Amino acid sequence: MSKKPILILQMQRMGDLILSYPLLLWLARRYPGHPLYVAAEENFYKPLMKLSPAATYFPWSGAGVLRGQRYELVINLSIRDRAARLAHELEADRVIGPVLAPDGSRFVHGDWQLYRTSLVGNNLYNRFHWADLNALDVVPHADMAATRFQPPRTMPADNAKVGVFVGASEEAKRPDAAFQADLLRELLNRGLRPVLFGGPAEKELGADIERRAGVPVLNLCGKLGLEEFGAVGQTLSLFITPDTGPMHLAAWTGLKCLNLSMGHVNPWETGPYPEGHYVLRSDLECARGCWHCSRSKLHCHEAFEPRRIAALAARLVAGAASAKLAGLRLPGLDLFVTGRRDGLYHLERVARTDPDEERLLARFWQAFFGSRFGLWGEDRPARAWADAARHAPQAADILLAHLPEMGRQFSHGLKTGSLRDGAFWSGSPTVIRPLTGFAQMALENGDHSRASWVRAMADLEALIACCR
């Protein structure tokens, strides 16, 4: 008897599709013999099929054919209502992710998918990458920890070709044309050979950058399809890029990336996923966990100086190890290298300094939710809390001072079925919002049933136990 298929619903953009590739690999190993189906946007998946792990792809325009069979597992990784409605309609032994019923009621299946939902506007302390969150509800942590992804290629020392991707889905996520033109000149001054890349939407931008630079440069903006870009990328020593779909394609195909992480993106969530890539991020407090900028200008762009970026690029092309990069002066920026820790994505700071408050609290909340959802034992969040309390005592005191209020809120909810304060999450101190945000989302997901209040109280008790 043939085994039931597993279906992934992915209606997001190219980068999100590529970040589901690790999930496909893990599912193939965990469910041998089960066909893997992916419903996705045809204009994204079709040119990438040669690079994708083995799967059968269906366009959303033909998603109706998916209703004719029963599935072992359906995983909805999309935020769109159309995908949630389809997830509700399909017959499956198990469904993960959001479903939307005909009466308009929505439910998110899976602790980790619910956790991801709670990060909307609330991801300051999140340390779980999207690619890992795609899988954690359905793939054992041990399987993920046993996986090693190939590091990027090291090209011959005389290969000085450096790709520069000029576009991004939003202007705030990329450098402007003047910066790119200066960067081209600085790269050439260091003996590197820059090549401009961009899709059809960046054709005019690429031409503007080329004019501003006033130097000989190969401009391929709007001239290559995704499959051709993947092939040309094999000839480059480095790819300098904002947080974009082509960045994820480059990283997946082994092209070393230097990610200029600008604007409202979080490299802990959407940075290059395989090991051995580099990420530059502003060290401004407002740049951490940013969803939109309310300031008069994008201050997080200011620390990115073309001269210093080119100096870093030259060292990366020359094969400098992280230890040799630590001495490079990059004021206003943090430099990270991607890696794995405890089987999960990790960003390692290249220039080590004493841990600051944000990083200490982020480590604690990662340890806390990992413990609550079964990745590891209760000792890990207790140790992480001890570090936070020792090195960031003021933040720890603020968190502890809010615990009685949470207890009052949950006790009131157990009796009445509702929170005392509708601003339970948004009105809580920033340091405790990972839990208040998740609790409020979980209560809504459980329709404020008694079971959902009991769970919220259990999470609070676990937090109190960590902080003793």
Characterize the structure shown.
- This protein has 468 residues and is α/β, with parallel strands linked by helices.
- Helix content is 40%, strand content 16%.
- The chain has helices at residues 14-18, 21-30, 42-45, 81-89, 111-117, 130-135, 141-145, 177-189, 203-213, 226-233, 245-252, 267-270, 306-317, 322-325, 357-372, 379-391, 393-416, 433-445, 450-466, and strands spanning 6-10, 36-40, 56-59, 70-71, 73-76, 91-92, 95-100, 106-109, 161-165, 193-197, 218-219, 238-241, 257-261, 278-282, 333-341, 344-349.
- An eight-stranded mixed β-sheet has the order 11-10-9-12-13-14-15-16, with helices on both faces. Strands 3-2-1-5-7-8 form a six-stranded mixed β-sheet.
- β12 (238-241), α11 and β13 (257-261) form a beta-alpha-beta unit.
- α8 crosses α9.
- The chain is globular.
- The mean pLDDT is 92.
Features:
468 residues, alpha/beta, six-stranded mixed sheet, globular
Uncertain residue segments: none
Number of helices: 19
Helix content: 40-55%
Radius of gyration: 23 Å
Overall shape = globular
Describe the SSE topology.
Layout: E1 6-10, H1 14-18, H2 21-30, E2 36-40, H3 42-45, E3 56-59, E4 70-71, E5 73-76, H4 81-89, E6 91-92, E7 95-100, E8 106-109, H5 111-117, H6 130-135, H7 141-145, E9 161-165, H8 177-189, E10 193-197, H9 203-213, E11 218-219, H10 226-233, E12 238-241, H11 245-252, E13 257-261, H12 267-270, E14 278-282, H13 306-317, H14 322-325, E15 333-341, E16 344-349, H15 357-372, H16 379-391, H17 393-416, H18 433-445, H19 450-466
Parallel strand pairs: 1-2, 1-5, 2-3, 4-6, 5-7, 9-10, 9-12, 10-11, 12-13, 13-14
Antiparallel strand pairs: 7-8, 14-15, 15-16
Helix pairs in contact: 8-9, 8-13, 15-16, 16-17, 17-19, 18-19
